[in-house]
Design goal:
Elements lengths: L1 E4 L2 H7 L2 E6 L2 E7 H4 L3 H7 L3 E5 L6 E5 L15 E5 L2
Antiparallel strand pairs: 1-6, 2-3, 2-6, 4-5
Length: about 90
């Protein structure tokens, strides 16, 4: 199944593999634990974040740090995450 999501945490919670697009081009793709690092939001959205593991779901959890604009609030926020789950 292919699902297009704009929420990294929702994608991380429900999808095994993630594919992140940046301006229509593939920026990253693979298993969620390999893709969701603090480097991804910095490179694609230009924001600072911290990635931890949710203790209940074991899914990566992205937290945008104070002072960093949320991706939806930035002019450069066209990242369209596409996620899949077999």
């Amino acid at each position: 199944m292919l699902v297009a999501l704009h929420d990294l945490n929702l994608a991380a919670c429900h999808c095994d593999r993630l594919y992140v697009l940046d301006h229509g081009r593939l920026a990253a793709g693979g298993p969620r634990v390999e893709i969701l690092t603090s480097r991804l939001p910095a490179e694609v959205h230009g924001v600072t974040s911290e990635v931890t593991t949710d203790p209940r779901t074991t899914a990566p959890q992205v937290t945008f740090l104070p002072g960093a604009p949320h991706p939806a609030e930035t002019a450069e926020a066209p990242c369209h995450g596409a996620a899949t789950r077999p």
